[in-house]
Amino acid sequence: MSKKTIVSASIAILIMAAGCQVPTGTIVFSRLTGDYWQIWTMQPDGKATKQITTSPSDKRYPIWAEDGKKILFRTNNNKAFIVDVDSREEKKILESFGLIGSLSESPDGSRVVFVRYKDNFKDSSNLWISTPGAKMQKVLTRDTGLQYDPAWSHDGRKIAYVSGHGFQTHELYMVNPDGKNKCKITDNKALEVLPAFSPDGNSIAYVSDITDDFEIWLMDIDGSNTRQITNSSGIDTRPFWSPDGDKIVFVSNRSGQLQLWIMNKDGSSARQLTSGAPSMDPAWKKESF
Fold first, then answer.
1. How large is the C-alpha radius of gyration of the chain?
2. Dihedral sign from CA coordinates of 32, 38, 41, 44
3. Distance CA 242, CA 244 (A)
4. pLDDT digits 0-9 by tens, 108-140
5. Please, are residues 158 and 196 in contact by the beta-carbon 8 Å criterion?
6. Neighbours of 244 (CB within 10 A)
7. E strands, 136-258, in order
8. pTM, two decimal places
9. How far is the CA of 274 from the CAs of 74, 191, 231, 267, in angstroms?
């Protein structure tokens, strides 16, 4: 064993002994690339960035498919796509549903919950569940106003989402994938959006403007024990948990423009991951599949 290898191994042991485990996995995100938002990936330390898409359209809200080899996203004209990370081939999905908003895949990869906008009504959408090929389809919500930002729990038993009307209060709700047991988990005069389940299923990270500034909060799964974990003069938004539940990657403009940041799950030790062109919409996958 070389002296360099021995030194590297010793450093790794010291880091683990100190409780400073290096995050693993891969983060997918949207980056403004030339004239368009394109899909990129990177390591959790902000290194090894790779551009995945190049076609001339804005691509937002990417999520990893369960197999870890594909990425789902939607375009600026509200169409849903899936791209193969290796071949870079892009394919349309859910074409029969018209205008599509953000998506979330079930933990087993068999179904997708997504926002479907009504063509003939302003500010009107509901959540649907379908297989990616649309062979099975089901209306999950039948409510007035906007239903959006769906997030599937890691055990597959719950879907969190946002419901609201125009610029009025938007609150977080929870529902079973079969549409039963819908319940409201926030109730105030603020905007609560972008729920994200922790991997252990005990907590939800979300964004609220209850302090007159968009910050990231945590709550217990039943909506209790709310606590603010970011507090910056800029916008802190779109949290996504690391696979082990110890870290949260998020978007902030606290450095002057929208970039990806990472922090401990309690909000401590925040540091910037990306720089240069603006970056948004992170999603984190485990190291191997």
1. 19
2. positive
3. 5
4. 999 999 999 987 656 789 999 998 777 789 999
5. no
6. 16
7. 137-139, 146-152, 159-164, 170-175, 183-184, 192-197, 203-208, 215-220, 227-228, 236-241, 247-252
8. 0.90
9. 22, 27, 20, 18
